[in-house]
Structures are given as C-alpha cells and as structure tokens.
TrEMBL record:
<dbReference type="Pfam" id="PF01864">
    <property type="entry name" value="CarS-like"/>
</dbReference>
<comment type="function">
    <text>Catalyzes the formation of CDP-2,3-bis-(O-geranylgeranyl)-sn-glycerol (CDP-archaeol) from 2,3-bis-(O-geranylgeranyl)-sn-glycerol 1-phosphate (DGGGP) and CTP. This reaction is the third ether-bond-formation step in the biosynthesis of archaeal membrane lipids.</text>
</comment>
<keyword id="KW-0594">Phospholipid biosynthesis</keyword>
<feature type="transmembrane region" description="Helical">
    <location>
        <begin position="127"/>
        <end position="144"/>
    </location>
</feature>
<keyword id="KW-0812">Transmembrane</keyword>
<keyword id="KW-1003">Cell membrane</keyword>
<comment type="similarity">
    <text>Belongs to the CDP-archaeol synthase family.</text>
</comment>
<feature type="transmembrane region" description="Helical">
    <location>
        <begin position="82"/>
        <end position="107"/>
    </location>
</feature>
<protein>
    <recommendedName>
        <fullName>CDP-archaeol synthase</fullName>
        <ecNumber>2.7.7.67</ecNumber>
    </recommendedName>
</protein>
<dbReference type="InterPro" id="IPR032690">
    <property type="entry name" value="CarS"/>
</dbReference>
<keyword id="KW-0443">Lipid metabolism</keyword>
<keyword id="KW-1208">Phospholipid metabolism</keyword>
<keyword id="KW-0472">Membrane</keyword>
<dbReference type="InterPro" id="IPR002726">
    <property type="entry name" value="CarS_archaea"/>
</dbReference>
<feature type="transmembrane region" description="Helical">
    <location>
        <begin position="50"/>
        <end position="70"/>
    </location>
</feature>
<dbReference type="GO" id="GO:0005886">
    <property type="term" value="C:plasma membrane"/>
</dbReference>
<dbReference type="GO" id="GO:0043338">
    <property type="term" value="F:CDP-2,3-bis-(O-geranylgeranyl)-sn-glycerol synthase activity"/>
</dbReference>
Length: 180
C-alpha cells in the first residue's frame, strides 16, 4: 500500500525532479536576468540561465515521454497502475519545476542571499510546489486522479530527502558548487 504510493509519487514527479539536475549539467551562458539588478541585488543571478532552463525543461518532458513508453511493463512488473503523461501535463511538471527554482532565486536575492546561498526549506520544495500548481491548472482531472492526498503526502516527505541526497551526490562528484 505505502509501496504503491511511493512508486506512484516517484513516477509522477520524475518529470519535475529531472529538470533541476539537467540544468546543473547544462547551465551556463546568458543569465535570464541579463545581469539586471533590482533594489540593490541581482534580479535572479548568474545561476539562472536560458540554456539551463531550456535544457532542464526539455529533459523533463523527454523523460515523461520515455515513461509513457514504459508504462505497461513497469505497471506489470511492480503491480502498480502507473499514469501516462499527456504533453501539457509533462510540460507543466518540467517547466513548473524550473519556474519554482527561478522564483526561489528571486526570493533569495531579495533577502540578501548571494548566488549559491542555502535557503533551507525553500531549496527543497520550491520546484515541487510550482510544478504541482502548474499541472493542477493545466490538466486538472489528470492531476486530481494521480495526486491523491496519499500521493501528495508522500511527495512532500520524499522530495526533500531525494533533493538532499541528489545534491550531496552531485557535489561529491564535482558537478555542483554547493551540496544543496
Ligand atoms: N542552472 C541554470 N539555469 C537554471 C537553473 C540552474 O543554468 N534555470 C545551473 C547554473 O549553472 C547553476 C546550477 O545550475 O549555478 C545550480 O543550480 P542552482 O543551485 O539552482 O543555482 P545557484 O547557482 O545555487 O544559484 P541560486 O542561489 O540562485 O539558486
Ligand atoms: K536551487
Ligand atoms: Mg544552488
């Protein structure tokens, strides 16, 4: 029962989990804010780039399409009724994750935090909250059927744990400048 909830939560959120990690690998180039400042600090900072955002979003969408192709064998193997992703839902999850991360950087700069500074709580949940918000807006019936209260509860507990583990791992591998 809990295993099925965890498996469903992980499957349904994978298109939102991958973009931030893909952005770390792809990042660089022109910052979204073009170097502009607002109220004495960068609008977003050099850590939010057009290329990272585009590649991150694309990676999440492609992952959703790959999961669609695997849905039958995966469901049969685990005995779980995994959902497929319509394109609008996939885009909402992937682009929502990137927007949540960008929004968090905006808040970090407003609160005097330099690029790379930690903001515990926000760092671990920003992308999930916006990804879920977007997908509930864009594909409401699908989102309501997939993200039941049980699945949502698992997402809120599991995401910070996965975030910490993947970021410490990326830092240890030298892919990321900070372990958060
Ligand atoms: N990245 C990017 N574009 C994005 C998000 C991330 O290019 N939309 C890349 C950047 O190279 C960034 C790295 O991924 O430095 C790590 O992402 P993150 O930790 O979110 O950015 P920070 O550099 O820590 O900046 P901030 O303090 O604004 O979060
Ligand atoms: K971040
Ligand atoms: Mg960071």
């Amino acid at each position: 029962m809990i295993g099925a909830l965890v498996a469903t939560a992980f499957w349904a959120m994978l298109p939102a989990y991958v973009p931030n990690n893909a952005a770390v690998l792809a990042g660089g180039g022109r910052p979204i804010d073009g170097g502009r400042e607002w109220r004495g600090a960068r609008l977003l900072g050099d850590g939010k780039t057009w290329r990272g955002t585009a590649v991150g979003t694309l990676a999440g969408v492609l992952l959703a399409l790959a999961l669609n192709a695997l849905v039958e064998p995966a469901s049969a193997a685990l005995g779980v009724d995994f959902p497929t992703f319509a394109l609008p839902a996939a885009v909402a999850l992937a682009f929502g994750a990137m927007c949540g991360d960008i929004g968090a950087s905006f808040l970090k700069r407003r609160s005097g935090r330099e690029r790379g500074a930690a903001f515990p709580g926000l760092d671990q949940l920003d992308f999930v909250v916006v990804a879920l918000g977007f997908v509930f807006l864009v594909d409401t019936d699908w989102a309501v059927s997939v993200f039941t209260p049980g699945v949502l509860a698992v997402v809120l507990v599991m995401t910070p744990i996965l975030h910490v583990v993947t970021n410490v791992g990326a830092y240890a591998l030298g892919l990321k400048n900070e372990p958060w």
